[in-house]
Write a structure and sequence with these properties.
221 residues
């Protein structure tokens, strides 16, 4: 089963207010195991970066102006996610922005199956915080590199969170334990000397005395 964990960074909270995508990051999973394949692009939003958003991800107007427009990276992104189930934290937000950008590039919206890890976390831990930071803390996932939000880094962290949410690590451990239980233990035993194959003199004499007692043996006829 192929899945792609996806995250975006934007200039603001609502594409309806004219905000744009500035970064896309994806991590490929195969049967809940990262394959090492990733997709990561910065995007020129063709607008200034509000200070509130810059404080979140650290991306400046000047830095992003050097990168391609979303229309120029759309084909590569769609090829990467093609045929995969998407895993997204607060999927409505990211899909809303991506589908807006795809529409601006005269492309159809994303039609993939989607797992929203916020919803999964809220069902599994009702009433508990469901942010990416909170889930990393709950599962003991190292997020020390996350000084600011970043689409690729957040996708990598979310992949670890997702594995915990669906029980992937526990399943792997159970399978390992079962395999270990089936391992044949090697026990060292003391080596015994081989038994002699030739009868002793005492055994031969006893056997002869026994035969002498038999009257009219069949082998004598």
């Amino acid at each position: 089963m192929r899945e792609v964990v996806l995250d975006t960074e934007t200039t603001g909270l609502s594409h309806a207010d004219g905000h744009r995508v500035v970064e896309v990051g994806c991590v490929e999973l195969m049967n809940c195991i990262p394959t090492g394949r990733t997709f990561h692009k910065y995007v020129n939003p063709e607008r200034y970066m509000p200070s509130e958003a810059q404080r979140v991800h650290g991306l400046t107007t000047e830095f992003l102006a050097k990168h391609k427009l979303f229309a120029d990276i759309a084909e590569e992104l769609m090829e990467f996610i093609d045929g995969a189930r998407l895993v997204i934290h607060n999927a409505e937000f990211d899909l809303g922005f991506l589908n807006m950008e795809l529409g601006r590039a005269d492309r159809p919206p994303i039609a993939a199956e989607v797992i929203d890890t916020v919803r999964v976390a809220r069902r599994k831990f009702p009433g508990a915080p469901a942010s990416l930071d909170a889930l990393c803390e709950r599962f003991g996932i190292d997020k020390s590199a996350r000084e600011k939000h970043g689409a690729l880094l957040d996708s990598q962290l979310l992949a670890e969170v997702y594995l915990e949410l669906v029980g992937g690590r526990q399943t792997a451990l159970s399978l390992s334990a079962a395999a270990a239980a089936q391992t044949v233990a090697v026990v060292e035993r003391p080596v015994r000397p081989p038994r002699p194959h030739t009868a002793s003199a005492e055994e031969l004499a006893a056997h002869a005395a026994f035969l002498a007692k038999i009257k009219e043996p069949i082998w004598a006829s």
